[in-house]
Amino acid sequence: IFQLNQTIFNKAVFDAIKVAHLSKDLQIYVLEDVKKTVENQTKQLFYALLYKKEVVKLYKENLNYWEENYKLTEAQFKAGIVPMVNLLRSKAQLELAKAQYEQALADYKKSLEDFKAFLRIEEEIEPEGSLEFAPFDGDYQKLKRELLEKNSTLLVAKKSLEVFEKRIDLAKSSYYPTLSGFITYQGSTGRRSLTGGTEWIKGYTFGFQLNYNLFDGFQREANIAQSEIDYLKQKESYTDTLYKQLAELKKTLEDINSITTQIKAVETSLESAKESLRLSTERYRYGVGSQLEVLEARNNYNATLQNYYFLLYQYMSALSNLERLIK
Asked: pLDDT, tens digit, for every residue of 9-29?
């Protein structure tokens, strides 16, 4: 006997295929979301490197300044113009400048190693680029529309919601009957008559079979109820994700506006600090200014310039976060 069975209709199979296709699409969205997250993290690390590189340049310039100051003070001391305390103070400031430079350089190198480890590369690299301020003027409503259309985290949540919704249909498909067809071939030997010889007797049968499970102990109802609960949970998760992303958009715009105002204020202060340092240096060079005046002017200039670089770093990081939200 040889029998062949073939399912003709089973709604659960069709719904399972749809769920599989949606799940595949979901994985693609998840992969894209991960890529954008990694891209944003890479930018954050890169901008931090640029900031620390600028700090190294700042302290290198500061070191050069105090080296020149020490040479000048040493010459003035030998000429009897300034007392020993000025020479000692200048030497102490020079040693401090060396320590600050070495610390900034070490911090930069450690961050560079972290960056290389994040990218999984071993060869020596040197980040190129600069921290720049480019005024940003974005319309919230336009950015909100872009977020709703392109935000990868939101797209993942939305696609997950579709998967859970289709799982309800898959659970309900157990209420539908299944239709299958069959064909049977049967062969055997038999006698033609009581006194005759044997012969091979064969025959075919085919038909259709409709199956329906009348009662399964309320298992179907339980599966449907659980699928609906999972869908409601995912719906709440999607709503929560939506409001979180919109909140992040508003906070990021607030950060950009706040940092922009601070940058403009520090730019003015930086011009003032630079001019003050120039005047103090000239006054000290010609013997009409004090060393403490130079020290205060230089420290003020260093602090203002470093703060300016830090604000530029924060500004570019905020722009990167904004790009992560709307693209």
From this structure: 667 777 888 889 999 999 999
Query: What separation, in Å, do the N-terminal and C-terminal C-alpha atoms of the chain show?
Result: 63
Distance CA 35, CA 152 (A): 10
Instruction: For the beta carbon of residue 324, count every other beta carbon within 10 angstroms.
Output: 20
Q: Give ∠ CA 46-52-55 in degrees, rounded to 5.
A: 150
Paired tokens of 257: 């506006």
How far from chain centre, in Å, is Cα 305?
Answer: 29
What is each CA distance from 326 to 8, 41, 45, 143, 170, in whole angstroms?
Answer: 47, 16, 20, 7, 34
Strand ranges in 193-327 using DSSP code E only, listed in sequence order: 198-211
Question: In 10 A of CB 148, how many CB atoms?
Answer: 15
Query: Among residues of the chain, what percentage have pLDDT more than 70?
Result: 89
Query: For 235, left (φ over 0), alpha (ψ -120 to 50), or beta?
Result: alpha
Contact 9, 179 (CB under 8 A): yes
How far is Cα 187 from Cα 135, in angstroms, rounded to an integer?
A: 88
Q: Which of 13, 23, 20, 15 is nearest to 161 (CA)?
A: 23
3 state SS of 104: helix
The closest of 209, 192, 188, 212 to 200, measured between CA atoms, is: 188
- pTM, two decimals, is 0.82
- Residue 112's identity, in one-letter code, is L
Helix (H) or strand (E) holding 317: helix 291-326
CA 131 → CA 109, 115, 309, 321, distances in Å? 18, 17, 7, 16
- Give the pLDDT confidence score for residue 137 in this predicted structure: 82
Encoded tokens for 270 = 């930086």
